[in-house]
Design goal:
Length: 213
């Protein structure tokens, strides 16, 4: 079985990772790579339905553990329908958020048991981890300011959380980075978009493509 390259993009809200992902695709395809992109929660019909429930600003009564389990359920369906087929066919797969988001948001952000979240992630992914995770780091206030300046972006339930919650999320990401520095590469997302895209592309190219193109 041919195995593809599994890359995830993570970061606090407003870090710009989704835009960077979109900019990376043509550059990678220009090198002859078959690129698949997807996102969490979502990426396939069932998971997108779950996403709409999680992020609906009207769902203010949602319990923290309910939120976590909805993310986990969406992840399992996404894995089976989108992630594994892409990797089995040898694709270069770019995923906007994956297992680290649950630890950062529901673990550090919500205060849920990170060991339990780790077990759930392990269970639903059958132990699958990304080959590389690009973590886009930005000051929380600047990230939220970017969101408020973006008139085309819908405000979801997580965007409405307190500054303190978002600060805890960033702290969580930095803790994961320290623990798994071989897998996760930190990128300064406060730079210009062009600089951030170049930094992300360089990491991918040097790690996976430099001697194969």
């Amino acid at each position: 079985m041919t195995k593809g390259i599994f890359i995830t993009l993570e970061g606090p809200d407003g870090a710009g990772k989704t835009t960077v992902l979109q900019r990376l695709v043509p550059r990678l395809e220009a090198l002859g790579k078959q690129v698949t992109t997807t996102r969490e929660p979502g990426g396939v019909a069932i998971a997108e339905d779950i996403r709409s429930v999680i992020l609906d600003p009207q769902n203010t009564a949602m319990d923290d553990k309910t939120e976590l389990l909805l993310y986990i359920a969406a992840r399992r369906q996404h894995l089976q329908e989108r992630i594994l087929p892409a990797l089995e066919s040898g694709q270069l797969l770019l995923v906007d958020r994956f297992i680290d988001s649950s630890v950062a948001y529901q673990g550090f952000g919500r205060g849920l048991d990170t060991e339990a979240i780790g077990w759930l992630n392990q269970y639903v992914t059958d132990g699958l981890k990304p080959d590389l995770t690009l973590y886009f780091d930005i000051d929380v206030k600047e990230g939220l300011a970017r969101i408020s300046r973006n008139s085309t972006r819908d405000i979801d339930r997580l965007d409405m959380e307190t500054l303190e919650m978002h600060e805890r999320v960033r702290t969580g990401y930095l803790a994961i980075l320290e623990k798994e520095s071989d897998r996760i590469v930190k990128i300064d997302a406060s730079q210009s978009l062009e600089e951030v895209v170049e930094a992300a592309f360089t990491v991918i190219y040097d790690r996976f493509l430099k001697n194969k193109t």
